[in-house]
Amino acid sequence: MSNYRPKTTVEQWRILQAVVDHGGYAHAAEFLNKSQSSLNHAVAKLQQVLGIQLLEVRGRKAELTQAGQVMLRRSRQLTQTITDLEQLADNLTEGWEPEVRLAIEMVFDRTPLVPVLQEFEHASRGTRLTIEDTVLTGTLEHISEKTADVVITYHLPKGAIGEPLADFKLELVCHPNHPLAQHDEAFAQSELSQHLQIVIRDTALSPREEEGWLKAEQRWTVSHFDEALRLVKSGLGFCWLPPYITEQAIRDGQLKRLQLAGSSHRRGQLYLILPKGDNAGPCARRLAELILAHCKGDPMQEAAE
What we know:
The chain is an alpha/beta fold. It folds into 3 domains: 10-93, Arc Repressor Mutant, subunit A, CATH 1.10.10; 101-166 and 269-298, D-Maltodextrin-Binding Protein, domain 2 (3-Layer(aba) Sandwich); 167-268, 3-Layer(aba) Sandwich (D-Maltodextrin-Binding Protein, domain 2). Helix content is 39%, strand content 20%. The chain has helices spanning 10-21, 25-32, 36-50, 66-93, 113-123, 137-144, 225-233, 243-251, 282-295, 299-303, and strands at 55-58, 61-64, 99-105, 128-134, 150-153, 162-174, 197-200, 219-222, 238-241, 256-257, 265-273. Strands 3, 4, 5, 6, 9, 10 and 11 form a 7-stranded mixed beta sheet that branches. Helix 1 crosses helix 2 (25-32). The protein is elongated, with a radius of gyration of 29 Å.
């Protein structure tokens, strides 16, 4: 281990920052509720132990030297790190989590989450947020294994308690020139088996293929709706996709909705779940509250239907 001992203190750097930010010793002293002489002494001592001049007084104003500008920038990183560390200690004392994981079923339109995350950023106290796209049984694994703090899912596992959040919808689509698109009327499901289906990969560690809508023997698997959309728009296969993904391409004539006999679309309910139940932390609960406040029965979700 190094025997190095710091020559300076965090308080000295905070005083230097205050002198610069408030335009001089007098205003900085008032802001910090300290005497002007104590600030003068702290900055003088700082310059002495460093062996460089940080400030020079011009008229009544203290201005940074070139070296002072460099040191000030680096000192702000130091004091912010100390602030974050102290906030983390407070958070841990209060049970406030240092990290929150949000797992979202991919059929959920993320647009309403933008104001949620903007508000959460201010309320999070520096908590790190991880957002994970999940599909089918991958979402359910996060609930059963309690590996996520907040989950948006289309399916409530047995014994789980969830708050209804929004509806979701999946439509069967393909390229306008695809053979399936040539039907003017609804056609039988048996015709799907003759064509390539694009499916979204189940994110579970142990996926169960009975979940979902797999009607074709020929299947290509992709990891995200965006990749599925790209393939279907190029004329490859058909896919079940949510309207928030397809609506622009349908308006532009790049995709066509298919009318399947007895199943023109698939619809369901999305729920918000706290997998850890009563053990959910205060930050996870705050995030869940914000999601429900902004997204529950969201008109943008309904309009997409």
